[in-house]
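Homework-ish question, so no full write-ups if that breaks the rules, but can someone show me the predicted structure for this set?
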Amino acid sequence: MPDSAPIILLHRPQLGENIGSVARVMLNFGLTKLRLIAPRDGWPNPAAEPLSAGAFEAGVSVEVFDTAEAALADLQLVLAATARPRGMEKSVTDAMGGAEQIQDSPLRCGVLFGAENHGLPSELVGLADTIMTYPVNSDFASLNLAQAVGVFCASWGAVQGAVGRWEGEKAGVETPAPKEDLIRMFEHLEEELERAGYFYPPDKTPLMKTNIRNAFIRGNWTTQEVRTFRGAIKALALGRGKARVQRED
Amino acid sequence: MPDSAPIILLHRPQLGENIGSVARVMLNFGLTKLRLIAPRDGWPNPAAEPLSAGAFEAGVSVEVFDTAEAALADLQLVLAATARPRGMEKSVTDAMGGAEQIQDSPLRCGVLFGAENHGLPSELVGLADTIMTYPVNSDFASLNLAQAVGVFCASWGAVQGAVGRWEGEKAGVETPAPKEDLIRMFEHLEEELERAGYFYPPDKTPLMKTNIRNAFIRGNWTTQEVRTFRGAIKALALGRGKARVQRED
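A: Not a homework solution, just the prediction itself:
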């Protein structure tokens, strides 16, 4: 099965530093194919290396083309990144939509970005199937080239879900303790608070207990956290100097 | 109503260039509040200016704090950006999830990013309500600080929809021509093709016509595009030298 990840194309990029930054952010999100169309300072460009963080050695391959037509020749679905919709009769999407369109497509896809100083010429946008634009601040629409590429790459990563994601470490798995553990913890705490003379006046005690329980309940504590805190209650009780050493639980 | 946009906090940022890039990408997506916690080279830092593209003058305000505790003091919901989940019992989200959580919250929110060289210390992650992490390539998890902030900012922009988005220019409004226009265009084209002797053999003609129509139909042409192409058909017909000048439509 062919790799569905799109090719990133930079049209007449000027600064090697930006090419390096583009490669860096690409590889973070699993994109490895970069095409340069008539890069101003040629290629390879030593200025790209420091900002790439080693991305070229680690997997980003670069192809260089003299013309956009040659760079696009073998692609079947092309998105053109523009700072704003061009008023063309062409579908317009945002970064997530673009990533989804490519993800869902069996075609050879590319995403085309313009030069630092003036973006993509209209005739190149005209060759694209879809315009991709971001909801940027109209008073300050000034993304750096690598930032613009990065927004798409991050969306690609989000659509992919996980690119070899941190195996062995589950994200966001919370295992709240069973209520029984919490209730026994509350009883333990309340018992010690009563011994300490905390609840006063007596007619307010039920409400005070409920309020405390509510505050703890919201934390969704795990069994381990309950166990830890029960140890803390015990230590506090002992620390008051009361003879509670014999308590076991 | 208070501004719901979160505050971006950078913990011990090292390079002024990165602070400038952060401000630039922030303002692109409508974020204007930046807090620096113990920036290595102090603040203001002249190295930030060139990469900010004027973002500080155009709206990004900077506050400087000596400690993270002071910078977080007035915030009620804090997301900590980390390169990977830390195995803490804390909810974990990605950039879009984080942006949505903040968007949906009436609280004063902040998003905390660590230093270039070693991210956020665990005790600071511990102060956060939610861990935000991106689905990065586990073989190359190496986002630049401004790239990391940029991923969140773009998600914030996407969740917001449009930040003062290019009013007066509608994105992606396609107005396909009514079928009548297309049918008349097909008839016109087929009539000229017949005159040109294109359809051969006769028994294949209906299939050839259908195939051509299908190819055009997929393009979802507008009325203007139909009109333009009819002009092209006419010109081609005339160009063949046939006496069709009198045809009007």
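Now go work out the reasoning yourself. Hint: Residues 179-195 of chain B form the longest helix (17 residues).
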